[in-house]
Design goal:
The complex is a heterodimer of chains A (478) and B (415). With 478 residues, chain A is α+β, with helices and mostly antiparallel strands. Chain A has 16 helices and 20 strands. The longest helix of chain A is centred in the C-terminal third of the chain and has 20 residues. Chain B has 2 domains: 212 residues, Uridine Diphospho-n-acetylenolpyruvylglucosamine Reductase, domain 3 (2-Layer Sandwich); 189 residues, FAD-linked oxidases, C-terminal domain (Vanillyl-alcohol Oxidase, Chain A, domain 3), CATH 3.40.462. Classes of the chains: A alpha+beta (478), B alpha+beta (415).
């Protein structure tokens, strides 16, 4: 560590107490990557602020020493959003974890960024309200991290993603100022800085407090599982359900490969020759639910469903969800390593993209299985391989690229919920024109003028030309 | 319509025309006032700098509509009503309530982030704009988002530009996420003896298991007459609009009726779809022209935002100042629109700035003027003074419009 960094570490220790500062190499290994394990680089110093004032002081110190810095939540992100490119100071927000206020009459809560997503709903149990965004990593990921990546989840089809549920933010700017944006009321005056911050992947400011919208719990829920002989029948059913004016709370699909893995691991009793399974949930007023359930069942049957199972009790519902939630755990049965992609296509392109994924799988000789948020057209193809074989690794990267290119060609996007981070920087030029990126760069330079905050992320223009990938990511959580 | 100080008018007929037009204005240091349907030109500080008008109504193509994707791509000059009619052929909707929809354009709607009563059940434009193309103050075209409903690639220009009043870029094309039209709608009208009773009714509504499409507290004799209520009836009405399938609406209606009768200790009227739609239409047009069929005049229309729990207190404060004012409070979301019957110019500082705005700020929100008969209102009066984030807004403005030519002086920040 350079003399300047040693001096900065000393200063941060005096400021925060030595229990809130790490700078020993051995202790920093934990912080060298997030869920995107391809790229690793430990920060020089990790700090654990306990208040917004701490964060502001840390940022001012970094500014003084001209050292890059970035925020981190639980580190569950999947695109390298909290990789400390170029080292510097990592501001870990997990010790700011209070649920500060809950107001049911006005339907909002105020939380600190380190509050784990699931804690808030545990806290709200029994009130009749919940916080809607439910990324599958919700038992570990923090709400601050959800704000940075604009997280989704299975139930965002009906309820919307994080940005639709964040009313206000307190943040520390890249220059160390504390600023409040929005608050508990709607339509704050001026331009929508809250909406601009959400999903900005920690490049525009460090969020220290969040005003979130609370949603009334639905009165009832109906969950069903439809088994199809072919992927086309399943995707056609999805299209018709939405076309019939029904917006399910969740609409998830698993293909034959996933079913095989689930059967090998958990013996749910699914037929191994079925190409696709849809998990469909509708919620809302009890009175309208049976009608919706029947309509969905009819649509599935008309499209050749072999069987539609209905959960009649909460226990049965949990059983149906179990197969979806355990899908990732089961993949270990299929191969030693796997890489999860995150692409989006317009819903009507689902049959097309599936045919393409099959072709790509054959062409690159890489097995690909699918479990994903079908209702939003948000794909998560999982590429199976053995990371000990450099040749397989190479084919996985080529196949991933082919899938994402096809998503773009279909009018879609290369990320629905995982973010650009460092993983997908090179795709930004495929999705956006030079002038689009130049204007994005201007937005970043407006709020992050010296580029010290989260450098090397999201945009290809700030010296980050895109990671030359030599190794695909392995872990996944949806 | 407010007269804009424009010397010439530019009328692009294609999205590709816009960058050159802005570049020319940028080079000539001329201001640009973007005009869609011209329905909310009074919104914001009155412009003083002369410049060019840029009319977007020639950008009127629907670029792509794939009903099964439930998204539509359209140019900014498409009229709101026309868009609605296109969507209605597929039983879909963009559930944003816009006054003067036959004139208003979708670009203007998004630039002004307009919303109406159904924002409670459906959300606002920030929940529906999933793709946006615009041209910044240097003539550089840019886009954000895309055509898919879930997308986190790049900065969210959809949010940045929605409600930016044309000050960061001129919107040329929009992609919206859509909703299915609802099969049935019923409106419950609850006369409340006083505002305390109204608060009881509103509290009851927070807890209903399925949120209504709209919860409006309507105060003033005009509303009462419109709803056909007798002269002796209360002038505080809570209008609850339910939308959904036949089964859902009928179940919700039965359940709510009982609860609302108990909360209000009054008879609850049920308006069928036709009567309910007619009332909704008046609610949508209210901010623009009041309640009377031909429109009624008002010296000042203001929008107050506050916590929902503070709405009735603020309404009481408004009535104390002007007992004859007419109020529409989107009570579920805490957005209050007030049309004053009388308002003295001197009260702009004493009452509006001195009392009402501080009360709104104490209630968690703020106050802005939507339109008024007073001339030369400053930004301080229209929007309020600087806020904590004004500096950040100005830094962004400087990057997007370095010469300050886009709608100069009209919004809440400098330039």
């Amino acid at each position: 560590m350079s003399a300047s960094l040693v001096s900065l570490a000393g200063r941060l220790r005096r400021l925060l107490g030595s229990e809130n500062v790490l700078d020993a190499r051995s202790e920093l290994v934990v912080y060298e990557c997030d869920g995107f394990t391809v790229a690793k680089n430990a920060p020089d110093i990790a700090v654990f602020p306990r208040s917004v004032e701490d964060v502001a002081q840390i940022v001012r110190c970094c500014r003084k020493y001209d050292v890059p810095f970035l925020p981190r939540g639980a580190g569950t992100s999947l695109a390298g959003g909290c990789l400390p490119v170029g080292g510097g100071v990592m501001i870990v927000l997990t010790r700011m974890r209070e649920i500060l206020e809950v107001h049911l009459r006005d339907r909002y809560a105020i939380v600190e960024p380190g509050v784990v997503n699931a804690w808030l709903n545990r806290h709200l149990a029994g009130t009749g309200f919940h916080y809607a965004p439910d990324p599958s990593s919700q038992s570990a990921c923090t709400i601050g991290g959800n704000v940075a990546t604009n997280s989704g989840g299975p139930h965002t089809l009906k309820y919307g993603v994080t940005t639709n549920h964040v009313l206000g933010l307190e943040m520390v700017t890249s220059e160390g100022e504390i600023v409040r944006l929005g608050g508990p009321t709607e339509d704050p005056l001026g331009i929508d800085l809250v909406g601009t911050m959400v999903g900005s992947e920690g490049t525009l400011g460090i969020v220290t407090r969040i005003w979130v919208r609370l949603t009334r719990n639905p009165q009832g829920v109906r969950t069903m599982l439809a088994i199809f002989e072919s992927v086309d029948e399943a995707t056609q059913s999805i299209s018709e359900i939405i076309g019939a004016g029904i917006i399910p709370a969740a609409l998830e699909m698993m293909d034959q490969g996933i079913v095989e893995a689930l059967e090998a691991a958990f013996h749910f009793g699914f037929p191994l020759d079925a190409e696709a399974i849809l998990l469909i949930e509708v919620d809302g007023l009890e009175a309208g639910l049976d009608q919706q359930r029947d309509r969905i069942t009819d649509i599935c049957n008309q499209n050749g469903a072999r069987e539609v199972q209905l959960a009649t009790t909460e226990k049965e519902r949990q059983e149906l969800w179990k197969c979806r939630k355990r899908a990732f755990g089961a993949i270990g049965r299929l191969s030693p390593s796997f890489c999860t992609q995150d692409g989006v296509v317009p819903r009507t392109q689902l049959p097309h993209i599936f045919r393409k994924i099959r072709e790509i799988s054959a062409e690159h000789d890489i097995r690909i299985v699918n479990v994903f948020h079908a209702g939003d057209g948000n794909l998560h193809p999982i590429l199976l391989f053995d990371e000990r074989s450099p040749e397989q690794v190479h084919r996985v990267l080529e196949a991933s690229k082919a899938i994402l290119d096809e998503c773009i060609a279909c009018g879609g996007s290369v990320t629905g919920e995982h973010g650009i981070g460092v993983e997908k920087i090179s795709y930004m030029k495929k999705l956006f024109s030079e002038s689009d990126l130049e204007v994005m760069e201007r937005l970043r330079s407006a709020l992050n003028p010296h580029g010290r905050l989260s450098p090397g992320k999201m945009l290809p223009t700030a010296g980050a030309c895109g990671m030359e990938q030599v190794h695909p990511g392995r872990r996944a959580a949806l | 319509m407010q007269n804009l100080p424009t010397t010439e008018t530019m009328s692009p007929v294609s999205v590709a025309d816009v960058p050159d037009m802005i570049r020319a204005a940028h080079d000539a240091k001329q201001a640009i006032y973007t005009i869609g349907g011209g329905t909310s030109l009074e919104y914001g500080v009155a412009p003083t700098r002369t410049g060019y008008a840029l009319e977007t109504t020639g950008l009127s193509r629907v670029v792509d509509y794939t009903p099964r994707d439930m998204t539509i791509v359209a140019e900014a000059g498409v009229r709101v009503r026309d868009l609605g009619q296109t969507l209605a052929t597929e039983k879909q909707q963009l559930p944003i309530d816009a006054p003067r929809a036959t004139e208003a354009t979708i670009g203007g709607l998004v630039a002004s982030n307009w919303s109406g009563p159904r924002r409670y059940g459906y959300g606002t434009l920030r929940d529906y704009v999933i793709g946006i193309s615009a041209v910044d103050g240097r003539g550089v075209p840019f886009k954000g988002g895309g055509r898919v409903v879930k997308n986190v690639a790049g900065y969210d220009f959809c949010k940045l530009l929605t409600g930016s009043l044309g000050t960061l870029g001129i919107i040329t094309q929009l992609t919206f996420k859509l909703k299915p039209q609802s099969e049935q709608a019923v409106t419950l009208l609850v006369p409340c003896e006083d505002l305390d009773v109204a608060e009881q009714v509103l509290v009851t509504l927070v807890d209903v298991p399925s949120p209504p499409a709209a919860i409006d507290l309507l105060v003033g004799t005009g509303w009462k007459e419109l709803a056909g209520l007798s002269e002796s009836a209360s002038a505080n009405l809570v209008a609850v609009r339910l939308e959904g399938s036949e089964t859902e609406v009928s179940a919700m209606c039965d359940q709510l009726q009982a609860e609302l009768v108990s909360a209000s200790r009054a008879d609850v009227l049920i308006l069928d779809r036709i009567a309910g739609d007619s009332l909704l239409n008046s609610q949508i047009e209210f901010s623009d022209r009041g309640i009377a069929a031909g429109g009624d005049s008002t010296p000042l229309t203001a929008k107050i935002t506050a916590l929902p729990s503070a709405v009735t207190q603020l309404v009481a404060r408004l009535l104390q100042y002007d007992p004859d004012c007419t109020i529409q409070a989107h009570a579920g979301t805490g957005v209050i629109i007030v049309r004053f019957a009388k308002f003295q110019a001197s009260d702009l500082t004493t009452f509006l700035i001195g009392q009402l705005r501080p009360a709104a700020i104490r209630a968690g929100g703020g106050l802005s003027i939507l339109s008024s008969e007073f001339e030369d209102l400053t930004s301080q009066i229209v929007w309020g003074g600087r806020v904590a984030s004004s500096g950040l807004m100005e830094q962004i403005k400087q990057k997007f419009d370095p010469r300050g030519i886009l709608n100069p002086g009209r919004f809440m920040f400098q330039a």
